[in-house]
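Form P-L/3: holo structure prediction, ligand NDP.
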Amino acid sequence: MAKNHHVIFTKRPGVNGEPAEDNFGYEECDYPCDPQNNEVLLKTLYLSVDPAMRCRLNEETGVTYIGPFQIGDRIGGFGGIGVVVKSACPAFQEGDVVHAGFNWQWAKYFLETPRELFQLGKIDSSLVNGKVSLYLSILSLTSGLTSYLGVKEKGHVIPGANQTMVVSGAAGACGSLAGQIGKLEGCSSVVGTCGSSEKCQFLTKELGFDSAINYKTQDVSSELQRVCPTGVDVYFDNVGGDLSNIIIQQMNADSHVVLCGQIAVYNKDVPYPPPIPEEVQKTLRDKNITRDRYLVLNYPDKFESGMKQLVQWTLQGKLKVRETIAEGLEHAGKAFVSMMKGGNIGKQLVHVGDS
Ligand code: NDP
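OUTPUT (holo model):
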């Protein structure tokens, strides 16, 4: 019988600890039986690696839409791409290359029903110029849809209004797309913050950001004043923490924060969204800045139109992406740890197999 492998959860990092490679194990396991009752047997090609998995490593996730892993559990991630090996589901046939946005098992082969795999769909490679991994790095729930719907629903971008957008975590999966989408939607200037000079170069030289600030080596406050002389109108916040507090202080009256993520505090025992200092709250109040919680999952009726727009931009070459690809399922845990520390540029993926 063919061999199978999966990633399991072995050790909690602790609510105040950084995730480490030994939180994950890699084991040989049984090859799945034949699919029954609408199941499909999938072979994994690519996995999406997402910061939201961090909360599942705690005993309580602090959110309602995903639960914690228990020690010994098989890791179920977010998106994945695979090929149907066998199917007991009439909608899918052997050989179909498929993608899904949720619950993709970190296994070489696994059985699942399309219902459990959020929006399991066939891949049309003509929509991604033949590069199937773009289904995860641009067209997935936790990449392009998060960025696009965040800008559209919470950014209040008005074409021709001379708005300046700042994006934190700008060289990552959501941030790199959010900045480009901000420009496409009509912002006159887009500035990214990120953690290395290589990432800054990527933003300005490859993606068309107007400026980039390395928050680890530069004085963010004075740099922002220099590159955003008319203040900040839209802030797409992927990171939270001190960096966001500095950026919010430079926002204009009636401006908008897209509260996408707060990765700077994911290794801290604080609620989500975390409390912000009183002086920042005062700025938000005094300047009438909106900062509502944003969760892409709350906009299911917008997914189809969002996807259409992302496909159009992709085919027109208007959205550029970088992928950081770890090779082999055995390195999936390491890829997660690396991404949480900034080891990725663009979307962090794992390449598991070929069709
Ligand atoms: P990224 O590809 O952006 O990877 C994470 C990045 O976070 C790292 O590369 C690193 O970049 C940065 N980072 C890590 N620690 C810190 C820190 N202490 N301060 C500042 N930056 C840090 O991940 P995603 O694009 O997948 O996710 C981005 C954010 O979007 C996350 O907060 C995630 O939870 C959120 N998200 C929200 C969704 C929603 O529905 N609201 C859906 C999907 C994602 P650097 O080198 O620049 O430090």
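COMMENT: The pocket of NDP is lined by residues 50-52, 142, 146, 169, 171-175, 194-196, 199, 238-239, 241, 243, 260-264, 294-296, 339, 342, 344, 348 (CB under 6 Å).
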